[in-house]
Amino acid sequence: MAFASPHVTAIAVEATEFPDLARTYRVSGVPKTVVNDQVEILGAVPQDAFVAEALSAPAHQPEGHA
Amino acid sequence: MPLLSPSDQEKLRSEFAKMTQSVRLLFFTQTLDCDTCLQTRQILDELPVLSDKIAIDEVNLILDRDRAKQFGVDRAPSVAIVARDDAGTDHDSRIRFAGTPAGYEFISLVQAVLLVGGGRESSLTAESRAQLAALDRPLTLQVFTTPT
Hints:
A: alpha+beta; B: Glutaredoxin; globular
């Protein structure tokens, strides 16, 4: 998705190495995707649903990951 | 000793041979308080030997704060994937890995390198690509995974 839009940044976070992030984003299962700190997508979902969910996220810049 | 078996190396070598553009892996590291930085460096070191289109740039998170900030990276180990065009100009792919790219994450890293380097097509459908092309605000996706 980052390849398809200059506005998208995609970060794969290894949850066990950064337990503070996993706690902050309440990660209890993986994969879990958090979009703009607000929209959560749990598990592996079909691509069209995933893209639609991600695009529904309101504008917001999370701290630390500009 | 290489972490990859000779047959895996051969598979990766032929995949990377499809790349049309050079890719740099910006490896953000720090000397202290980073249990997995060395392991990450060892994993990344497996790649440049398989393709002359892949290079690693080590960035010290503490000493080179400006560069880390430019890429929005505040944790080590992290990897940012950057495309380098024929004129030698770098283009941030905005694809990052925070933590050790081992197990399935190694496969994700290889896939990302291939995508950015023009060695494979995007797996997005035409519809998804059209929707993303119309995007007019920043989206940051954090994908949490665990090693498997």
